[in-house]
Amino acid sequence: MVVAGCTKCIKYMLFFFNFIFWLAGGVILAVALWLRHDSQTSNLLILQFEGQQAPGTFYISVYILIAVGAVMMLVGFLGCYGAIQESQCLLGTFFFFLIILFACEVAAAMWGFMNKDTISKELINFYDSAYIKAVDVSGSPSKDSAIKVLEVFHSTLDCCGKGDDTALFKQVVGTLCPRKTQEDFLKSQSCHYKLIELFSEKLYLIGLAALVVAVIMIFEMIFTMVLCCGIRNSPGVY
Question: Which residues does 65 contact at the CB level (< 8 Å), separation at least 6?
């Protein structure tokens, strides 16, 4: 052990933050896997209508989270080991990976901010295309499949209609929303609103996790630089 005094304190603080970082990576990985297999989103995003798959933009952010969580656990272990061993080589490698992770997180945050409304809008458009076919009185060949798509939306989100429903839709509400009476339909929330609410909550959760991780990363980069300088300037290191 070559470091002493305040630098030794920094060493154990860096180990502690790296342990928290490792745990955060595990939590993010678990949350990402939960988001990937969550019944609400999975039921909606596996739907197909007229040969088109439901938009899967949401899964892009989830797959990024899975990769970030796994890398964070690996980098966190590297940082813990480097701090305890007081290895400048390991700490330098750890610092390099932190910079890469931080840059990727900033890029992902910018992408998420620019596309925060895209996910719900894509699914709303998908819902509306099925909605139009489902209430079509001309006997469209895709009417049965459109009704099945709407049934999945209505049962999964506990909603009915899109908020500005026509008299024609209200006449067939018993078919499209079999669990709801006419009175329930008047009280129910629109599927447009429920879709926006569903993905806003999940994106908020992702954003909160990213913010916590970014703060931890900043402290780790500072402590890593201080510890490396302390090791380099300690007696017995040449």
Answer: 28, 29, 31, 32, 35, 206, 209
Query: What is the b/e burial string over 48-79, where b = at least 16 CB atoms within 10 angstroms of the residue's CB?
Result: ebeeeebbeebbebbebbbebbebbbebbbbb
The residue with tokens 């596996």 is 46
Please choose, from the candidates 178, 170, 123, the residue with its C-alpha nearest in 3D space to the C-alpha of residue 148: 178
- Cα–Cα distance, 182 to 212 (Å, whole number): 46
pLDDT for 238: 45
- CA separation for the pair 71, 94 (Å, rounded): 11
Contact 108, 211 (CB under 8 A): no
DSSP SS3 for 48: strand
Helices 143-157 and 118-134: crossing angle in degrees, nearest 10, is: 130
pLDDT tens by residue, 48-103: 776 677 777 777 778 887 888 888 888 888 888 888 887 888 888 888 888 888 88
Beta strand spans in the chain (E)? 48-49, 52-53
The token pair at 38 is 């969550």
Spell out, as residue ranges, where the chain has pLDDT lower than 70: 1-5, 50-51, 137-140, 164-175, 178-188, 234-238
Q: Does domain 2-233 have CATH number 1.10.1450.10?
A: yes
Could you tell me the CA-to-CA distances from 102 to 31, 105, 135, 227 in Å, in that order?
19, 5, 49, 20
> Residue 49 in 3-state DSSP?
strand
The torsion of the CA quartet 96, 97, 103, 106, rounded to 10 degrees, works out to: -140
Q: Is-contact 3 85, C-beta < 8 A?
A: no
